[in-house]
Amino acid sequence: MKLPNLDWVNQDSPYLRQHRAGFRLLSFDDELEQAFSRYHITAILVRMRWALLVAMLLMLLFAVLDAVSLPESVRNRTLAIRLSVIVPTLLIAWLATYQRRLRPYLQIIVGGAALAGGLGVAGIIWVARAHDFPLPYEGIILVTVFFYFLPGLRFVTAALCGWLTFFAYLLVEVLSGLPGELLLYNAVFLASANLIGCFGCYFLEYASRQNFLAQGLLQDMAEKDFLTGLLNRRAFSERAERTWRQAQRERQALALVMMDVDYFKRYNDHYGHAAGDEALRAVGQVIGRQARRPLEMTARYGGEEFVGLWYGIEESQVMQILEDIRSEIEALALPHVQSEATGVVTISIGLAYLLPQPHQDLEDALRLADVALYLAKEQGRNRVVSKRPGCPA
Ligand SMILES: Nc1nc2c(ncn2[C@@H]2O[C@H](COP(=O)(O)OP(=O)(O)OP(=O)(O)O)[C@@H](O)[C@H]2O)c(=O)[nH]1
Q: What is its EC number (predicted)?
């Protein structure tokens, strides 16, 4: 996938970091690896179900073939392996794909079932050899191809299944006394099937990881402010609208907050635009640290203006959070000689604290927060001012 200009992605984006670091060994940083596992299993779930279903049907088809063509001495044991080991294991794995809570373990469950299938087929060959029945060995190649390409197993799981089955097959043939030249041919064919499978599976997983990163990068571009890494205005508005409706339904209080860096025009004029960007980045980091739970959010609203939302919180708690933001920004001690009083970069904060009413909307709340911010500026900046609807200034 061709990616747009990545200069416009926040440079701290974990997707961008991983994209730049590469992933030849098919592994991401911890946090992204977990997200990728969830993405991957969702992407291949349907294919996994179909693959297991097809494998079960083929096993049953081969069971019918065994029943009509194998001599009695071989038939019963072969059918027992197919019908009481391989098919039930595949069935359990297939049922597991319908259990949401088992999704994190599906690679292991389906990998285990696939391996049971591979070892089962090696067992069938062993039974045939023990009774001197010339059963073709190609079945083991079929299951090998299955491991790598059908159920959506990741590279490591598929390779483990493939090579363990390979060694089990070799052991069977050595113990059964297959002549050396034939053994060599079969081993080379099966090893080749495994190598082709490994290459194919590696590139499939690599492409899947590329898609995952590309999606993450595009989402970051669409939703995050590239300078600070906070949400951008559009993404904030969308999410805040949803949270607003939830607060109305659940009768929970909301804190809507407007924040504005003090005398920022003078800062830019004095220190230059690049230094201004750095200051905004530092301020954004302080603000972002204070909203980590699912229904809390902070965003860059535009220019040197930030916005925040906290859900179902006491006014005293949110005042404490905002006071922490204010004092931490002051404590950054970013020199600002043009700022009256403090001489460092500071921020003014306006809080609208309210229980959303049916006749109100989010815009009303933001306007109220803006009024509180205006008061904070008027009262001397570098402070937090709170307003509730209907309360005079
Ligand atoms: N460096 C930088 N400056 C920006 C950015 N976005 C907006 N600005 C500047 O932010 C400044 C905002 O100035 P004003 O709105 O006049 O407010 P102020 O100087 O902070 O004054 P008060 O809000 O009253 O304290 C302008 O000079 C904009 O050019 C940005 O992304 N980077």
A: 2.7.7.65
The rounded distance, in Å, linking the Cα atoms of 203 and 154 is 11
| Domains of the chain and any CATH numbers | 6-222 (no CATH), 233-387 (3.30.70.270)
- Find how far residue 248's CA is from the centre of its chain: 31
Q: Which of 255, 270, 244 is nearest to 335 (CA)?
A: 270
- CB of residue 377 inside a 6 A radius of ligand 1: yes
Q: What angle do CA 136, 139, 145 make, to 5 degrees?
A: 145
CA distances from 167 to 140, 190, 227 (A): 11, 10, 54
- In order of 49, 89, 104, the CA distances from 98 in angstroms are 9, 15, 12
pLDDT in tens, 103-133: 999 999 999 999 999 999 999 999 999 999 9
Q: What is the pLDDT of residue 5?
A: 77
Q: pLDDT tens digits, residue range 310-355?
A: 999 999 999 999 999 999 999 999 999 999 889 999 999 999 999 9
pTM of the model: 0.85
- Cβ-contact 91, 141 below 8 angstroms: no
Could you tell me the distance, in angstroms and rounded to a whole number, from the CA of residue 274 to the centre of ligand 1? 13
Tokens of 293: 């739970």
Residue range 12-36: mean pLDDT, rounded = 94
Q: What one-letter code names the amino acid at 94? A: W
From 227, 259, 264, give the residue whose CB has the most ligand 1 atoms within 8 Å, as the site to mutate.
264
**Ligand 1 proximity of 225 Cβ (cutoff 6 Å):** no
- Which atom of ligand 1 is found nearest the CA of 302? 6
**Spatial contact of 166 and 144, defined as CB atoms under 8 Å apart:** yes
- The answer, yes or no, to whether any atom of ligand 1 lies below 6 A from the CB of 268, is yes
